[in-house]
């Protein structure tokens, strides 16, 4: 069984769990949640495909990063392995990305309460913090390059640039949707209320990218110990080269 297939199964399982949980948490007896057949059909036609599409995207991204982490673990078993140096600025970047995720959650909850001003403020703060995080990642790369730690210097450096760079690419994709959401949010309160689903999807995507970054940062920070542990797990499961 390949690593990519394993992570695809995990992503599919998460998607199935989410769909099942939605059914369990439904309260048809609650007048607040009760809707007409037309409203329900309209919600199913508009909201559900977007949410399902997001979760399918997250499953694919999970498979991609899972495959990358597995390749990192397999390569670290080679005797000539040297882990990349970790710039201290990554600690600050991690805190900034966490704050961005918190701001998105605040915006999501504010939009659900129809608090337009708070939702706008949360959206703006989340995006600015995400941009600061990307700038911090660029600074980390610059620090490595200034110290002679180029991607071509060793395979450990190459993995560092690849992992952090791929994460930034996905964050830039999220910022594209964020910019459109901000533009609509400032077009009027009525539009803001209509974009509550978009804010919710953005928040979910941001939370996911925060989790991905924490995993990547933990692996890069712990260096040899974590990677060798993952290598042993893969070997025990019969995954990868022996």
The counted number of beta strands is: 0
pLDDT < 50 stretches:
1-12, 15-47, 224-228
Shape: elongated
The rounded distance between the terminal residues' Cα atoms is: 14 Å
Instruction: Please tell me how large the radius of gyration is.
Output: 21 Å
CATH superfamily of the largest domain: Cytochrome c oxidase, subunit III, four-helix bundle
Helix proportion of residues, in percent?
over 70%
Identify the CATH class of the largest domain.
Answer: Mainly Alpha
Give the overall average pLDDT.
76
Total domain units: 2
CATH architecture tag of the largest domain: Up-down Bundle
Describe this structure in words.
This protein is mainly α. The protein has 8 helices and no strands. It has helices at residues 3-24, 37-75, 89-112, 116-146, 155-185, 189-194, 196-222, 224-236. The two termini are 14 Å apart. Residues 1-12, 15-47 and 224-228 have low confidence and may be disordered.
Descriptive keywords:
about 240 residues; mainly alpha
Topology:
Elements lengths: L2 H22 L12 H39 L13 H24 L3 H31 L8 H31 L3 H6 L1 H27 L1 H13 L6
Sum this structure up briefly.
Helices cover 80% and strands 0% of the residues.
């Amino acid at each position: 069984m390949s690593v990519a297939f394993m992570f695809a199964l995990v992503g599919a399982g998460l998607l199935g769990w989410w769909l099942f949980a939605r059914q369990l948490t439904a309260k048809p007896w609650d007048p607040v949640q009760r809707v007409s057949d037309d409203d329900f059909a309209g919600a199913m036609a508009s909201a559900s495909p977007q949410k399902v599409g997001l979760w399918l995207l997250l499953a694919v991204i999970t498979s991609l990063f899972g495959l990358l982490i597995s390749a990192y673990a397999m390569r670290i078993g080679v005797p000539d392995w040297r882990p990349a140096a970790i710039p201290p600025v990554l600690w600050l970047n991690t805190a900034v990305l966490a704050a961005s995720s918190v701001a998105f959650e605040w915006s999501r909850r504010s939009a659900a309460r129809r608090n337009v001003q708070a939702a706008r403020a949360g959206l703006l703060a989340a995006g600015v913090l995400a941009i600061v995080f990307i700038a911090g990642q660029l600074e980390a790369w610059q620090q490595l390059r200034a110290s002679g730690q180029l991607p071509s210097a060793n395979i450990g450096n190459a993995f560092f640039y690849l992992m952090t760079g791929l994460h930034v690419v996905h964050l830039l994709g999220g910022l594209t949707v964020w910019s459109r959401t901000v533009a609509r949010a400032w077009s009027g309160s009525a539009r803001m209320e209509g974009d509550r689903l978009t804010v919710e999807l953005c928040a979910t995507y941001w939370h996911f990218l925060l989790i991905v970054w924490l995993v990547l940062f933990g692996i890069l920070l712990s260096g040899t110990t974590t990677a060798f542990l993952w290598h042993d797990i893969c070997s025990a499961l019969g995954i990868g080269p022996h």
